[in-house]
Design a protein that fits this description.
The protein is α/β, with parallel strands linked by helices. The chain folds into 2 domains: about 200 residues, Rossmann fold; about 90 residues, UDP-galactose 4-epimerase, domain 1, CATH 3.90.25. About 40% of the residues lie in helices and about 15% in strands. The strands form 4 sheets. Strands 3-2-1-4-5-6-11 form a 7-stranded parallel β-sheet, sandwiched between helices. A two-stranded parallel sheet has the order 7-10. A two-stranded parallel ribbon has the order 8-13. Strand 1, helix 1 and strand 2 form a beta-alpha-beta unit. Helix 2 runs parallel beside helix 4, helix 4 runs parallel beside helix 5 and helix 8 crosses helix 10. The longest helix has 22 residues. The protein is globular. The termini are far apart. Bound molecules: NADPH dihydro-nicotinamide-adenine-dinucleotide phosphate and guanosine-5'-diphosphate-rhamnose. The site of NADPH dihydro-nicotinamide-adenine-dinucleotide phosphate (NDP) has 25 residues, from helix 1 and strand 5.
Length: about 325
């Protein structure tokens, strides 16, 4: 009998890669989607025939309990969240409801509905925020700098708590930034690759940016879903830092993207707009992924320049086709 997996956030970047990955492993894949007035299944339309969508929302306990009871999944990947840091400053309470309390709701659904399910929580390097140590390991103290980071920290600790209180197989991947051609266009990498592609094609004149000095450890989302799966295949539930161990500034990403389309004078096209600055910034993130490298035998396969090239290629193609 094939294993059953339930993915929350299946319509998002990671959810779509996770669904592809699990289908390739022979899983029956179920995806939680919420009711919206416009279609949100763009990222999974190529696999729609092979997955089953079920309706629910992280703010609605009954829907989650019902879905877990019905499916009895072997594995649950909680990838749903209000995941955009600037929106968390504008909607801090909603972010807490979804990104923090939503984790308790899905854990409760598992506890009462099917406690033998293994649970993966999408924790974030944003929990390190004003980083207390460089690079960041599983033991680095947390210091979140946004309502999003604070909400993720709650989700992280409630996962630890359910593991310790109820002996559930529940663990977290503390994932550093991971990007792809499917990244939302509001996040900095995709905003850059889309903007640069449009500039190259003469469709855009300026790219308005915020803080170019922030540094992030950027990897490819397609590589990271494998690490998430590996965590649930371990004998015991443990938390892992997932990242590349390399850091680059937003400016370096910009330079690399303009270089990829053959534009040298990138400064001529970029303008700083203070509206894209955040009330509190996370200046420097860099993972120490040694534990994942050794215990999970996982390594990222995509380099920084390969990632930029992949995203630029995709955006050039999309912009040329006018989609
Ligand atoms: P996305 O923003 O692309 O996707 C978020 C998903 O959550 C979407 O499917 C969205 O559905 C769903 N969602 C939002 N609110 C609710 C709700 N109330 N109920 C049910 N579903 C909801 O995020 P990513 O794929 O990039 O990230 C996946 C997870 O990993 C998130 O939890 C994120 O916080 C975390 N993370 C991401 C990192 C990254 O670099 N990408 C790094 C570390 C952690 P809809 O389509 O309907 O909006
Ligand atoms: P982040 O990602 O906040 O790290 O969270 P984002 O791409 O939004 O920002 C990265 C850095 O770039 C700086 N920046 C800009 N950011 C955006 N969005 N737009 C701009 O114009 C801009 N200019 C500069 C930001 O200030 C920041 O320092 C992502 C999300 O996926 C989270 O859900 C996840 O948990 C973390 O990564 C790890």
């Amino acid at each position: 009998m094939s294993k059953k997996a339930l993915i929350t956030g299946i319509t998002g970047q990671d959810g779509s890669y996770m669904a592809e990955f699990l289908l390739a492993k022979g899983y029956q894949v179920y995806g939680l989607t919420r009711r919206t007035s416009t279609i949100t299944t763009e990222r999974i339309k190529h696999i729609a025939a092979n997955i089953q969508l079920v309706e629910g929302d992280l703010t609605d306990q009954h829907s989650l309990t019902h879905v877990v009871r019905e499916i009895k999944p072997d594995e649950v990947y909680n990838l749903a969240a209000q995941s955009f840091v600037p929106s968390s400053f504008k909607q801090p309470v909603l972010t807490g409801e979804v990104t923090a309390l939503g984790v308790t709701r899905i854990l409760e659904a598992i506890r009462v509905g099917y406690p033998q399910a293994k649970f993966y929580q999408a924790s974030s390097s944003e929990m390190y925020g004003k980083a207390q140590e460089v690079p960041q390991t599983e033991h680095t103290p947390f210091y979140p700098r946004s309502p999003y980071g604070v909400a993720k920290l709650y989700g992280h600790w409630i996962t630890v708590n359910y593991r310790e209180s109820y002996n559930m197989f529940a663990c977290s991947g503390i994932c550093f930034n991971h990007e792809s051609p499917r990244r939302g266009t509001e996040f900095v990498t995709r905003k850059i690759t889309q903007g640069v592609a449009r500039i190259k094609l003469g469709k855009q004149k300026k790219l308005l940016m915020g803080n170019l000095d922030a540094k992030r450890d950027w990897g490819f989302a397609g590589d990271y879903v494998e690490a998430m799966w590996l965590m649930l295949q371990q004998e015991n539930p443990e938390d892992f830092v997932i990242g590349t161990g390399e850091t680059h500034s937003v400016k370096e990403f910009l330079v690399e993207a303009f270089k990829a389309v053959g534009i040298k004078n990138w400064q001529d096209w970029v303008e700083i707009d203070k509206n894209f600055y955040r009330p509190a910034e996370v200046d420097l993130l860099i993972a120490d992924p040694k534990k994942a490298f050794t215990k999970l035998n996982w390594k990222p396969k995509t380099s920084f320049s390969q990632l930029v090239a992949m995203m630029i290629k995709n955006d050039l193609k999309k912009e040329e086709a006018g989609v």
